[in-house]
Amino acid sequence: MARETEVGAAAELVPGVVRGAGRYAVGNANGELFAVTRRCRHLGADLADGSVDRAGCLVCPWHGARYDVATGRMTRGPQGFFAKIPGSDAGYRLLTRVLPLGRGVVVERDGTVFVRQ
């Protein structure tokens, strides 16, 4: 059987919430639960401290990179100073086409959410 990590009560995982569960950032993007590996491809920020934007993307708490939670690919590279480095955005987006964030399977049983590796 696959290993599972408890995330918490399903009722607490409302849209926009992101939580850490083992090696995953687990959240709710517009009503859909997701689990992606929790380290940003840019500088390793903990994505469990991130947020979900209106488009349902996971946003890195350090420099604002955005990830498509369905694919694990970066949809916008780091912002701020890093956005001013020529080619940086395209380079990071290309990197995550080859090495996207890993994804776990989210399951709910008896009102509790788990992520399966």
What does this structure look like?
9% of the residues lie in helices and 37% in strands. The model has no long low-confidence stretch (mean pLDDT 91). The strands form 3 sheets. The protein has a 4-stranded antiparallel β-sheet with strand order 5-6-7-8. A 3-stranded antiparallel β-sheet has the order 1-10-9, with no helix packed on it. The longest helix is centred in the C-terminal third of the chain and has 11 residues, at 88-98. It has one helix at 88-98; strands at residues 4-9, 18-21, 24-29, 32-37, 51-52, 57-59, 66-68, 74-76, 105-109, 112-116. A hairpin with a 2-residue loop joins strand 9 (105-109) and strand 10. The protein has 1 helix and 10 strands; from the N terminus they run ββββββββαββ. The N and C termini lie close together (10 Å). The chain is mainly beta and 117 residues long. It is elongated and about 50 Å long.
Question: Keyphrases for this structure?
Answer:
117 residues; mainly beta; three-stranded antiparallel beta sheet; four-stranded antiparallel beta sheet; 1 helix
What summary fits the major beta sheet?
4 strands, antiparallel
* Percentage of β-strand residues: 35-45%
The helix-strand sequence is EEEEEEEEHEE
Discrete helix count: 1
Q: How many beta-strand segments? A: 10
Shape: elongated
Mean pLDDT reading: 91
Contiguous low-pLDDT stretches (5 residues minimum) are none
**Which structural class do you get from the secondary structure elements?**
mainly beta
